[in-house]
Amino acid sequence: MTRAKPGEGRPFKRKSDGLSVVVVRDAEGRRKYLYASSPAAAIARRDEYLAGTAMGLNIASTRLTVGRQLAEWLDDRRGRVRSSTWVSYESHVRIHLASLRNIALTRLRAAHVRELVRERQAAGCAPRTIGYSLTVLRMAIRQAIADGLVPRNVAAGVTAPAAVGHEFRILTEDEARGLLAAAPATTCGHLWTVMLGTGMRLGETLALRRIDIDRTAGRLTIAGSLRPRDRRIRPAGTARLAIEPPKTSAGRRTIAVPAFVLAAIEVELAADRPANVQGLVFTTPRGTPLDQRNVARRWTAFLAATSLPVIRMHDLRHTAASLMLAQGASLYDVMKLLGHASITMTANTYGHLVEGRSRELAAGMDRLLGRGIG
Q: How much helix, strand and coil, in percent to the nearest 5, is found in the chain?
C-alpha cells in the first residue's frame, strides 16, 4: 500500500481562491486533489472518496452529474423498451427531474429527492406523476450502482404522495346508452362503441385488424397497440405510427364481444375506402392508420355536441369495467378482459366499485343457507 506523504489527507486552504483542498491517493497510488468550500466539507469529501475506494467504486464518477447519469441511462434504454415507454422516460427526465440535473451523482442525497417531491407537488403534479418520476430516478441510480459509480440508491426510501380518490369519471348506464345512440352518426363513433363495449384501450382498438375478428364465434383477438414512434428512436424511413406488441403476456388476449360491438365492426369493414396494407379495421378515409391525436380532437368535438358529461376517452374503458362489475362480473373476470397483468392492479383500480356489494352477498348467503336454522 502506498504510504501517504506529508500534507496528504488533511485539508489546507488554496491561496488563489480560498477553497479548502485535501490530497488523497486513488486505488493505483496516484495523488488526487479534492476541493470544497470549507475544511469540514473537504474532510467529508475525503472520507466519502476513501470509503468509495475501499468498496471498489469507480471514483472517476465524482464529477458525474445526476443529469449526465440520467442521459446515459436513457441512451441505454433506447431500443430496449417500447418507443412509447422511452418517450415517457425522456419526458420525466426532461421535465420532472430537471432540478436534480446539476447535482453531482455522488453528492445526491435523499434530502434532495424529498425536496424534488415537494417541488413537484407545489407545481401541481399528480401523485401518480411524481411516483413515476421517482421510479425513473431509481432505475437510473440502479444502473449507476451496477456500474460501480455509487454505493446505494438514495431515492429508494423516498415515497411519492398518496393518491387521493379515484382519478376517473365513469358513465352511468343511461349515459352509456346515450353515447351508443349518438356515436354511429359521427366520425370515429364505431371506434368508441368498440371501446365502450369491450374495455379496450384506444391504441388496442386502433390496432385491430381484420384477421383479429372471428365473426362466427363472436370473438376478437387483441395482439398489439397502434402507437406513434418518436422520431429520435425510430429507424429512418419507417412509419411514424406502428403496431407494438403488448407490454405483458396478459395484454395479448382473445375476448368474446357483444353483438352491438360486432355490428359496429361490420360497418367499418364494409366501408368504401382503400384497403390498409396492415388490414386495420379503423382507418382514415384514405385507408391510412388513425392518429390518436386526431381521434382525441374528434372525441372533444363529439362530447361538445351532445349532453354527455366531459370525460376522457380512456374513461370508456373504466365505464366498461364498472358496468360489467355491476352485472355481477368478478374482479378476476375484469382482469382477464382488460388484460391486466395482475389481480392487484384490477383491485386497486376497481375494488371500490364492489365494496358496496358485501350486503348483497350476505343476503345471498342467507337465502342459500339460512333457511330453517334457528
A: 50, 10, 40
Identify whether residues 33 and 96 lie together within a single domain: no
The answer to whether position 209 is within a domain reads yes
Name the CA dihedral angle for 352, 127, 75, 111, rounded to a multiple of 10 degrees. -130
**HSE of 255, CA atoms in CB hemisphere, 13 A:** 27
Domain identity same for 257 and 130: no
Question: Quick one: 183 and 238 in the same domain?
Answer: yes
Instruction: Check whether residue 52 and residue 72 sit in a common domain.
Output: no
Task: Name the nearest CA neighbour of 211 among 196, 229, 224.
Answer: 224
pLDDT tens column, 313-347? 999 999 999 999 888 888 899 999 999 989 888 88
Give the strand pairing for 213-214 and 219-222: antiparallel
* Number of domains observed in the structure of the chain: 3
Phi then psi dihedrals of residue 176, to 5 deg: -65, -40
User: Are residue 188 and residue 141 in the same domain, yes or no?
Assistant: no
Instruction: Specify the DSSP class assigned to residue 199.
Output: -
b vs e for 224-243, b when ≥16 Cβ sit within 10 Å of the residue's Cβ?
bbbbbbeeeeeeeeeeebbb
Residue owning grid cell 364505431: 190
pLDDT tens-digit profile of 64-96? 899 999 999 999 998 888 888 898 999 999 999
Residue 194, domain extent:
173-359
* Whole-prediction pTM: 0.71
